[in-house]
Amino acid sequence: MTDEPAFDLEYRPFSLPLTTPLETASGSIGSRDGFLVRITRHSDGAVGYGEATPLPGWTESHENCAAALERAQRTIRTRNAREALAAVDEAVAARHGVSLALADLEASSESTPLYRYFSPNSLVARVPVNTTIGDRSVDESVTAARRAVDRGFGCCKLKVGRRSVDEDIERVRRVREAVGPGVELRADANGAWSYDEAVSAIEAFADIDVSIVEQPLPAGALEGHAELRGNGVAIALDEGLLEHGVDAICEAQAADVVAIKPMALGGLDIAQQVTAWIAELDITPLVTTTIDGVVARTGATHLAASIPNLPACGLATGELLAEDLGRDPVLLENGSAVVPQAKGLGVEGVWEE
Questions:
Q1: CATH code for 7-113?
Q2: Helix (H) or strand (E) run with residue 276 in it
Q3: Could you mention a single GO BP entry for this protein (predicted)?
Q4: Is 343 a catalytic residue?
């Protein structure tokens, strides 16, 4: 006689178009296609939700994500939740979806917000966030930055690297003139520049008071990133973390800041471990999304709430989507994300039968 399974895992595909394509140096993003995950515990009917939204160049492919979720589904029904996580292998987006659903289930069962499930002694109302401005024309960038500041954002990140360095410098300079000295400006090149181009950009950005330049060089250029540090603008690695890992970044002294993307790292649990590790090494963590749906985006907000003293994080990306999986429980107010205090993720209405 076969024992009844303790859990059931279901997943369904979705496609979320962006309001307008997000132009970056590594390509244009027009939609986010992934899988909504639901795990049910049979003993009490408790449910948890997760999201697996792969992104080319960052995670496994859409097809490999689906295959990994199918393996997890078979495994959780015949074995247990721990082995279901192991069954996704190196499929980081799939692991994110499964691990987030399990964490949501457990936190909901304990009637605690997800961030307190990861950090029991925390009580956090808000986390600071930045707005993201795609690689637009000068006038469009200025308009977008002004609107963001009028809405209360104190930090704007501009995508750069698709045009000449001189054009990017002028664009960022015009945004600085438009928003004034009290707004933090960051730039993200997505690895588009050569070393000489990065030197020119950083020299100009230091005069414009840009605080951070994210991934100025390709991910493999750890030594180059190390040489760019100390020139008036903090150097952040994003793609470089995935390619090299924390040890190599620290050994090369290649970063002041590291972007933490839970979807690309394989889940909130792994992201929290990486964050604690780099904080011990005097590198600043910065939690960001991969332009995810509301389930993963809310998970990233809970992750940020579980980590003390973070700078403005890249969590205000829901406004880039024309459609979403459900109602967003995270209110954006005066440049901060208001952290849900309901049990678990706090996301409702995402799985309609």
A1: 3.30.390.10
A2: helix 268-280
A3: amino acid catabolic process
A4: no
